[in-house]
Amino acid sequence: MQLLLSQIYKIGVLYNEAVKTLNYYHSTATAQRMLRKIETYSEAIIKQQVQAIKLTEEYSNTE
pLDDT tens digits for the chain (63 residues)? Predict the structure, then answer.
């Protein structure tokens, strides 16, 4: 669980850094591409969180 939380935190930090960098050096098109990648990674994390919840519920029901 700690690994998942640290990954979520890292995405937030990287998102902030990407936005700052894009504001100074890149075009809007580049920003949109990078934001789409971040959205993809965020969706993957959400799927993992849902799977973790399901597994936790299944484990709790077997006890």
Answer: 677 777 778 778 877 877 787 777 767 777 778 788 888 888 888 888 898 889 999 988 986
d(CA 13, CA 7): 10
- The angle, 0 to 180 degrees and rounded to 10, between the axes of the packed helices 2-25 and 28-62 is 170
Distance, CA of 61 to CA of 56 (rounded, Å): 9
Look at the pTM and tell me if it is higher than 0.90: no
- Yes or no: say if 38 and 8 are a contact pair by the CB < 8 Å rule: no
Neighbours of 61 (CB within 10 A): 7
Q: Which residue has the tokens 């990954």?
A: 7
